[in-house]
Specification:
CATH superfamily of one domain: Thiolase/Chalcone synthase
Distance between the termini: 22 Å
Oligomer: single chain
Helix content: 25-40%
Shape: globular
CATH class of one domain: Alpha Beta
Radius of gyration: 19 Å
Length: about 375
Amino acid sequence: MVSMKVYIKGVGMTKFGVDRKSSHERICEVIGECLKSTDMNFDDIDVIFASNSESERNEERQKHQGPMLSTLFQREMPILNVPAGCAGGGVALWNSINYLRSSDCKNIMVIGYDNIVSLTSEIITDEILMGSERICEQTEGLNFPAQNALVAQQYMMKYGATSDDLALIALKNHENAFDNPKAMFYKKKVTLDMIKKSPVVASPLRLFDCSISVNGAAAAIISKDPGNIEIIGSGMCTTSLSPIERKDMTSMSSTIKAAKTAYEQAGIKPEDLDIAELHDAFTPLELLSYEDLGFAKKGHGAELIRDGTTKINGSLPVNTSGGLKAKGHPVSATGVSQIYEIVRQMRGRCDKRQLDRTRTGLAHNVGGAGSTVTVHILKNLGG
């Protein structure tokens, strides 16, 4: 348990997609929504933790993000850039929580943003591969779809899961995204037949087993001042770059350890959760995470998707936003966008996707193939 309480005051998020807005436009948009959801002004923010992975390669050509943001905001203040690949948003939040607890500042804004689709396919592939091991993965072509295909093969051989189980995960997330105005696949119908007949990317993974790279930004304000949503658990763990270096490819020890820390801080168990946003960059990653986060026993994760437990009307809805799979995956913005969804659910603002019970929620953000993981647990104090 931790002594000092941290609250979420406001959240903001752009629509995820392939539009050509600049990063500056996206940042201003999310900050505007974030502040509008609170009674705060930008001058109330003491520190900013930002995460971005590609600005030196896109139209901005800028590695030094802090001064760029200072110029945009027209403010001299502490601004820290926290790159951690696909876990950048979650790691920025984890750092901001610990900084808030150890400093005299009162309010911190966390921003994740990426304009990755403004790059060419070759550059996007190169950028993403820089989050993997240098020799086997970058040089020899063992990219992230191939890595996750190997993980899926190992899991299927050991525990009997099938491609049909993965297809049900994809279908669930697309059904959720259909009613999410911020999602890439908003109002875009995807059927089980479409998923099963989509092209093979790396067996057993098909196209619809893989998340889509998009542009987007998300922001959150955390504070020492009491609010109606508290961050009661925050865990982070880092392990090796490559999954083939690990004892068991069918489990992510980084998720297990980050979750253990978060659950212990929160004083709850997995069965106490009402909602979870998981890092489903690939459908088998969501399946493994059911087990690593304690939702199911080892080898039994597929039962949760088969019996409807993780559907929006199930006992533990997972990825009501549509997840990375159908909401979209703008790398550094993903972790903060998970917080956005949970906060909006807790405030009763998700319209057709709105859940009846949202007392506790978990956000799970992954960088690389399980190399860096954050787990955050939120509590709804408003009911």
